[in-house]
Amino acid sequence: MSTTYFGPVQWYQKLHRYDHVWLERMENFQKQTYRNRCIIASPNGALALTIPVTHDEGKTLMRDIRISDHGNWRRLHWNALQTAYGESPFFEYYADELHPFFEKRWEYLYDFNLEITLLLCQWLDIQPDIHHTETYARPEETAMDDFRSAIRPKHSEEDPDFSPKEYYQVYRSSYGFIPNLSILDLLFNEGNESVFFL
To answer: What angle do CA 177, 181, 186 make, to 5 degrees?
Structure first.
């Protein structure tokens, strides 16, 4: 699986259901993916929050992608989460542990995403066996299920093992149920019941 920034429910479903998960750190970074983007439900509908990154010209390995301080994104993302979920049932329950991710500066995106993933696994009460790739294997070279390119914001592949279960969302009366948002949406709305939706 690719690494994610507060990845979608579908990504965490895979993390929960598989006995062993390999997070890809040796692939070339791809723009407009969950690697540095999450999608939340805001008062104006679905909203993408994107971490600005820096990398060398040409192809750069995921493990070498650095987080940029451009645009004061940490403050903007935290404010967006507060605005979107301040009235949700469980935002206050998680806020104190979540806020440091928007204060501390991580150098590498992969390390930042990994720390997020480990914390969210605690909140979800799941214990995945996570490994990190040391080499890149093309899809045809591995016998494992490969979700590196399958779970994407705009071009998701058909996934017969994922059917979003509806849950309470703050803005559902305005926009209907929005499936497969960031795992934060599920946690802020369902709390410790979230694992049952995976």
So the answer is: 80
